[in-house]
Amino acid sequence: QVQLQESGPGLVKPSQTLSLTCTVSGGSISSGSYYWSWIRQPAGKGLEWTGRIYTSGRTNYNPSLKSRVAISVDTSKNQFSLKLSSVTAADTAVYYCAREDNWNWGLNYWGQGTLVTVSS
Amino acid sequence: DIQMTQSPSSLSASVGDRVTITCQASQDISNYLNWYQQKPGKAPKLLIYHASNLQTGVPSRFSGSGSGTDFTFTISSLQPEDIATYYCQQYDNLPYTFGQGTKLEIK
Lengths: 120, 107
Fold this sequence. Notes:
The complex is a heterodimer of chains A (120) and B (107).
Chain A lengths: L2 E5 L3 E2 L5 E8 L8 E8 L6 E7 L4 E3 L7 E6 L4 E6 L8 E9 L4 E5 L3 E5 L2
Parallel strand pairs in A: 2-11
Antiparallel strand pairs in A: 1-3, 3-8, 4-5, 4-9, 5-6, 7-8, 9-10, 9-11
Chain B lengths: L3 E4 L2 E4 L5 E7 L7 E6 L6 E5 L3 E2 L7 E6 L2 E6 L8 E7 L6 E2 L3 E5 L1
Parallel strand pairs in B: 2-11
Antiparallel strand pairs in B: 1-3, 3-8, 4-5, 4-9, 5-6, 7-8, 9-10, 9-11
């Protein structure tokens, strides 16, 4: 059974870079036809798709985040990562990593989520 | 971006009731729509994919229908464990977008 687990600092200062890692267990991150995704959710609000990386390394990002976002993968550690630069309080949210399967284009597996607060 | 509009935003119903949530897309998305259930403090869970297909292991009281711009999610007989917020999500175009959610409560 595939499991995902987010990790990273829970507090980031304004203008700094938010860095999160998602560790995948129960399967290789480099096998299969999957998109490894990040979704965020501000407290009490809805879900926002942040971006994804394919097993080939190809990435797609939400244009609302412009050039601030980068997603990468480390196959040796079975992890993928999110970096969001120049953060503000508006980036405070629970960040989820998830796996999107291209047989049903659904986000089938999710991490438990990690709260990141942007504050000085 | 494709805007997804859910209604109602909140809903109170009794155990055993039939519950219906609608989702409207700002443009034709064919049937490229998923439905998720999110319980408090938990990650979302995929219930329905491709508008009407039940994810493995999901009870048959959940169903989805629709195509184009108008979609419906139905719980045929509401159970206490169905208390959650439900989201639709389109995957026709990037960026993927979600509806604002429908919070379901027991009356």
